[in-house]
Amino acid sequence: MKKIAVVYLFAVLLSVCLPVFSIEPYGLTCEYLTDPVGMDTPQPVLGWKLSSGERNQVQTSYELMVALTEKDLAEGKRLVWKTGKTVSSESFNIPYGGKALKPFTRYYWKVKVYDREGKPSGWSPVAYWETAMLSPADWKALWIGDGSPVPEREEDFYKDDPAPMFRTTFVAKGEIRSARLYITGLGYYEACLNGQRIGDNMLDPGWTKYGKTVQYTAYDVTSMLSAGENAIGVTLGNGFYNPLPMPIFRPLRQYLDVGRPCFIAQISIRYADGREDLIVSDSRWKTFAKGPVVRNNVYLGEHYDARNEQTGWDTPDFDDSQWQQARQVTPPAGRLSARMQPPIRVTKVLHPVRMTETRPGVFIFDMGQNMAGVVRIRARGQRGAKIAVRYGEDVFPDGNLNVMTSVAGQQKRVWNSGWDAPGQPPVAWQEDTYTLKGEGEEVWSPRFTFHGFRYVEITGFPG
């Protein structure tokens, strides 16, 4: 009972000593994002939410402080912006009005507000934003590719064209305080560092008019680096930058900004002792043009041959003596701009609700709902065995897949559309294939395509 009494008395004293505010700011955002990293907006807008235990409470004024360190912000010294008490009920779309922002710099900020009686709240929790490139001159990296030419004949676009792979090694010379990767690749890219995939974005970057804007993404890769030798690897997909000449209502390559797959990447490393290092994409990188993604297209699907995998290709110890030198390429005309919208990610994993074998060796999986996504398959089998995956939004009365429900554009033989072109499929159904390497359990999912479907047809499945 004495212990309970002591705890109760302590709680009462604590409640008396702590200040109680009628209104409090929380949920601070910069450009509508929480603690964003990699922004290129020279005058970002700030905002916050308000909380109150009272009804009809309002903000009548606010006060903002921004500094380069949390210590300076706490002490109110060496501030880069201080608004003072500003009469306003606005709590979002507040444009930054301090000293000109510097690239690759983190800014810490906090806010307090005043209620309807003019009484101040406490200071909000500290938030931050971090800038990336603020001008084209901040990019030191070069656009590079594998040097492959664009096919001269239209039918050659439909042949195997393996997704190019790139790698380089670099040495981190000391204790790392922070490291950032700034990267984009057209049409799509996937990057790895020391054998580990960077981020969980899919089909990055977002589709833009590449002659006007190309979006890049900033990643905090501090925890993925170590002192000593490191390696980064990049694989490129075609996306909408290197589409097939197949007409999707109109011939795509005549209406889009197009080119061979290419990318630009820049790693900024800051050490504990204040030194900095920069690793950039250039012709010193190595490239390999016979990787496992042998064909990829947004509309027709992806073909993957696991026998072509380069084990450990994105690690420091890999022997890349058989790889070629990368080539500097003409960049897309669009301005490099930091990606601000949410990326494409896996948001849910669905399992089939039923499976039927409609014909010997032909399996139809019902996912239970129409969706946009890709499948993940898990299989064991002999080396060279091929699994084919086709997609549809419906099935025929006999249970077999109706591929016409997910045909790309108007590429249907029965329509006799008049768009026939050399090499293009008479029926542009969506299909992925996976060729096994024959080494135990193999798990695979396409990376540079997506599909709209409910039903999945699997043939050639070895078990």
Kindly describe this structure.
With 463 residues, the chain is mainly beta. Helix content is 5%, strand content 38%. It has a 7-stranded mixed β-sheet, with no helix packed on it. A hairpin with a 4-residue loop joins β19 and β20. The longest helix is centred in the N-terminal third of the chain and has 16 residues. About 1% of the residues have low confidence.
Secondary structure layout plus pairing:
Layout: H1 2-17, E1 24-30, E2 37-39, E3 45-51, E4 61-67, H2 70-75, E5 81-82, E6 86-87, E7 94-95, E8 106-114, E9 127-131, E10 144-145, E11 165-172, E12 176-186, E13 188-193, E14 196-197, E15 213-220, E16 228-237, E17 247-248, E18 250-251, E19 262-271, E20 276-280, E21 286-288, E22 293-297, E23 301-305, E24 324-325, E25 327-328, E26 335-338, E27 354-359, E28 362-373, E29 377-379, E30 386-392, E31 431-435, E32 442-444, E33 451-459
Parallel strand pairs: 2-9, 15-26, 23-31
Antiparallel strand pairs: 1-3, 3-7, 4-5, 4-6, 4-8, 8-9, 10-25, 11-16, 11-21, 12-15, 12-19, 13-14, 13-16, 17-18, 19-20, 21-24, 22-23, 27-28, 28-33, 29-32, 30-31, 30-33
